[in-house]
Task: structure prediction
Amino acid sequence: MTGRTHDLIGFTALTAFVLYQPLQEMSLATGIVAFSANFAGALSPDLDEPTASAWKKIRGGSTFGKLLAPILGSHRMISHSLLGTLLVGYLLKLLLEAMSGVLLVDMTIVWWAFMIGYISHLISDAVTKEGIPLFFPIPINIGIPPFSSLRIKSGGLIEKSIIFPGFIIFEGYLIYANYEKVLEFFTEYVKR
Ligand SMILES: [Zn+2]
Result:
């Protein structure tokens, strides 16, 4: 799927997670960092692809992406697997712990926001024709539904005309259906 579809789905997953859990107090800084981490998480599995949209956002990023690609394997390898998710989760936890003395944000919230984006990326790639190598290094691609003929083409017409608008509507619905909770979150739980 395209980067913007991944970002939208990741953000929708985060919204649902926040709204269907007991609300948690956080500083405005934590909220902003968590929001950015969610976007980064939704894009980062595709950093194994030199043309990934995340690389294009960084100056010289595509060159760096080309250097990194052989290490991560070809596109949709370890970064799209359970093993990769566990590794990323573990390394990110170490990194955030190391940064927690410098940045005054709640790193547990940031970690969750990143991982929700990351996992939503893998689930959305699983509905595309190629599927994902969930059990890497076992070379079998897994998809939802199991028959690839029933899955969608990445970046294709169905993604652009149904999935993307569908998630915008779903995001709007989530906010509308939980409007009071959304207000409560921003007025009482986000501390300035
Ligand atoms: Zn991907």
Notes: Residues 157-177 form the longest helix (21 residues). The two ends are 36 Å apart (CA to CA). The first strand starts at residue 26 and ends at 27.
